[in-house]
Amino acid sequence: MYDHCECTIEHQIFPLLGEKVVSDITVANLKEVLNHWMNQDYAYTTVKKVYIVLNEYFRYLTQQEILARNPMNSVPIIKKSNFMAVQNKEDLPTQETVTVFTPAEIEKFKAEAFSKFSNDKPKYQHPAAYILILNTGLHTGELLSLLNSDINLEGRYLEVRQNVKKVCKRDGVNFEPGREVKVGKTKTATREAREFSFAELLCP
Fold first, then answer.
1. Rounded Cα distance, 54 and 26, in Å
2. Strand (E) or helix (H) holding 184
3. Confidence category of residue 191, pLDDT binned at 50, 70, 90
4. Given 24, 80, 116, 140, which is the most exposed site by the fewest CB atoms within 10 A?
5. Which is more confidently placed, 204 or 128?
6. Residue 23 · residue 67 · CB < 8 Å
7. Please, where are the H alpha helices in the chain?
8. Environment class of residue 38 by beta-carbon count within 10 Å: exposed (0-12), middle (13-18) or buried (19+)?
């Protein structure tokens, strides 16, 4: 999360506001930043992230009484439908944009996962892991974070409790070369402590 925020600040905020004194930044300046990236054909999620970072930053400054008021209070986030309309794009409902494998595609996926070279050596090291992802929709980080204790053989279910991800190395907030593996919460609250029965884990 910190890495994503830093990237947003570096690439979307500093280029437009980096030379300004914070106390001199106006509501109009902030709206210009959001409109700039919208008109540059950036994704709605990217521009929304810019909005969130700016809002949190100015909220902190007002909490610490460094600024008297939060200018972001007067900068409403544009609705996604209006945002897409400005870019002449169609705002499709989420369920219409999800790609679902057909039974034939699932069988093709499974066959490829367990396929072998001519010398009978498996093409992939962990084919069962791909099948587990296929049948459960687990994120890669969730799969990598599974422990033996997350598998209940007696109850015949698997429980997802955490997530693994690679992040930039830091000494406090200072960046260091390289990346490191961190184990933390699942990506969203709705994905926490989910359970999958063994019936869901078996190949269809």
1. 12
2. strand 174-184
3. low
4. 24
5. 128
6. yes
7. 2-8, 14-17, 27-39, 44-63, 80-86, 94-97, 103-113, 127-136, 140-144, 198-201
8. buried
Other beta carbons within 10 Å of 8: 19
Backbone angles phi and psi of 12, in degrees to 5: -110, -25
pLDDT at 47: 93
Tens digits of per-residue pLDDT, 84-119? Answer: 888 888 766 655 566 778 889 999 999 999 999 999
pLDDT of 204 > 60? The answer is no
**In 3-state terms, what secondary structure has residue 79?**
coil
Query: CA-CA-CA-CA torsion for 29, 33, 36, 37, nearest 10 degrees?
Result: -170
Phi, psi of 121 (to 5 degrees): -85, 130
Beta carbons of 48 and 75 less than 8 angstroms apart: no
pLDDT at position 7 is 87
